[in-house]
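Students often ask what a holo structure prediction actually looks like on paper. The answer is less mysterious than it sounds. You provide the chain, you provide the ligand, and the output is a string of discrete structure tokens encoding the 3D arrangement of the protein together with nicotinamide-adenine-dinucleotide.
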Amino acid sequence: MSLIERLRSREARTAVIGLGYVGLPLAVELARAGYHAVGIDLNTDKVQRVGAGESYIKDVPSDELKKFVSSGHLVASTDFAVLETCDTVNICVPTPLRKTRDPDISYIVAAVEEIRKYIHPQMLVVLESTTYPGTTEEVILPLLERDDFHVGEEFFLAFSPERVDPGNPRFTTKNIPKVVGGVTPRCTEVASELYSAALATIVPVSSARVAETVKLLENTFRSVNIGLVNEIALMCNKMDIDVWEVIRAASTKPFGFLPFFPGPGLGGHCIPIDPFYLSWKAKLAGFEARFIELAGQINGSMPEYVVTRVGEALNMHRKALNGSRVLVLGVSYKSNIDDVRESPALDVMRLLKRHGAEVVYHDSFANREDPELEHAAVEAVDLTPETLAGCDCAVVITGHGGVDYASVLEHVPVVVDTRNVYEGIRSDKIVRL
Ligand SMILES: NC(=O)c1ccc[n+]([C@@H]2O[C@H](COP(=O)([O-])OP(=O)(O)OC[C@H]3O[C@@H](n4cnc5c(N)ncnc54)[C@H](O)[C@@H]3O)[C@@H](O)[C@H]2O)c1
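The corresponding structure tokens follow.
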């Protein structure tokens, strides 16, 4: 039976390498589609928790996970040898930047080295990790192809960018359209067949290179537009214009305008990082990606700007940053999720401390034991009237639901609002970005 037939009949056995924010939801969707899915991760804790049907990703309810684990459709392992019996494998490992801002694709290479040991005829390999154009063809293909083992014939290779938006209840792994670009047309066809069983909409493109660039365009688009609106916010502050009111009114234009909002800087593992994968590769081709660099500079300067505004807010009350107690509200990188990776709150807290402020934070979503938060060495507090009254200033970095912002405003002398959580509220105590 061909791979396409095995995929259609759901007899195909699927694997996902990397059980994080991207990989675990994907493995669940593959199991839901009726495939046998095996999740592989080096992290034994994650593997054990998946095996016990216990989810550590907010968008994957444990009940759901348990259902597929109990029915035997989903298993987890640290052993790559399971690939021997799998027909497909999706790679969902991290793609960070090195300190020099160069792409670090070592996790991809490590995963492919393992696949190489177990790859067999009619196997499909799909890379989902965000990466620079050419990775699939220039890095993965040479590791897998041999003289007697050709892509598009003996095995299939494709890139399909992951677009998951953690915490978004409307758009999930299942209903976000999936772009698929194979190294050959046959590879695109086979990879599309895998996804079409599990996901709502498939968007085939002509090559892996195009699919890789699609993802980078999407995230560069966000980074550049956020950079633009951050610059407009800085400009409006100089001219004493309320940038939030400007954006709200501009958003009433029914065409040709898409609202983006200023904030304390970029966070997460995508928007601050992915554009530099593109500019790095462009540089190799002799092209300077100016918008990416400029947006990176503006967005990267926002935490420092926020700290300046906190200093100004305290100054209005005849206080200095040095020695003031500052409450940081929201430390994850966006609303209503627990992920603190690359969060601008970490920079803001570090800078506040460097200026001598005594910093505390509140975040009911973030895990207090997260290594990045532990490294920040900032005390977590509950929002009681007493703790609030003991603060000289609060700064809203991430606007989570379930926070009593009215109580914050009542008890803290001044609040710097970088997210417009106090929209429509007039008070001398509010300093807006
Ligand atoms: N998180 C998002 O919102 C998001 C959205 C779109 C795309 N992406 C991209 O998807 C990729 C994965 O991101 P994530 O957020 O899921 O990362 P993550 O850190 O949550 O998960 C990655 C997992 O891979 C595991 N891992 C690392 N190396 C491994 C190896 N060699 N073998 C097996 N497992 C290994 C880690 O233990 C971890 O569990 C990245 O390229 C990221 O840029 C992420």
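The chain has a mean pLDDT of 96.
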